[in-house]
Amino acid sequence: MSLTDQFKVIIFDCYGTLADWERGIYVALQPLLARFPSSASWTRKEALLAFTEIEKDLQAKEPSLLYRDLLAKAYEAMANTLSAQADPTSTADFSAEGRAFGDSIPAWPIFPDTCDALRVLEKHYKLVILSNVDHASFAHTHAKLSGVTDSAELPTYTLPVPNPNAHWLPQTTPNSRSPFSLILTAQDTGAYKPDPQGMLAALQIIEKEFGVGKDGVLVVAQSLFHDIEPSSKLGVSTVWIDRQGACMGLETINEPPKWLRRFETLGEMAAAVETNA
């Protein structure tokens, strides 16, 4: 069965799948890592895995914390640990640096194949975002994914004020060039993936708005930990975008979940959909 025969809706993870969060995080961490002997020699993988363990712990403990604030808190926790290792008597305050790190999401780059692939895929499916992010931070990424380069247009790509009884269908916004039919963030669902609360909310809204049940939904993501494994446990079909060189989201999986298809880029998947392969 080809990918276009059964599925009507794709739920995308954003950061790691559409945007290169590993590059964004690693670049933003560099000044901190270079400052301390214990981290100056870390490999890229060592640095990212050290950070993601702190981040995952905070997401589980504080699911209501906005993502940019969670990033800031994770940065401060890492900085305090490194500082204490270098000088146990240090009283350095990393709060300002943490806030700057949390505000770095708009600078995280989009993978080069993403935007063209989304334009192909939106011809065949309703596209949905389910992302561990907050509204204000995602606005910049959303604009990039929509092909917007003029900052004056940014308000069009900003999510509305969160409402537990509402959700955003961006293509209903006047003049929107968004490829997405529905956007949900952790700020909307009150949970960070892999908590299934977000996916269950997305499935419920998709059935209500588009008349598509779980069997017609496909999850497309890079992270086995955040997306592929928990979606598979809910009985939702998945496609793994196995971004080469990635390390975040893969580190805790001993038995990889079963996915329908595997591609190294979203562009490869879009090509397969176009040719009905």
UniProtKB/TrEMBL annotation:
Annotated GO MF terms: hydrolase activity
Keywords recorded for this protein, A-Z: Hydrolase
Coiled-coil intervals, chain numbering: none
Name by which UniProt lists this protein: Haloacid dehalogenase
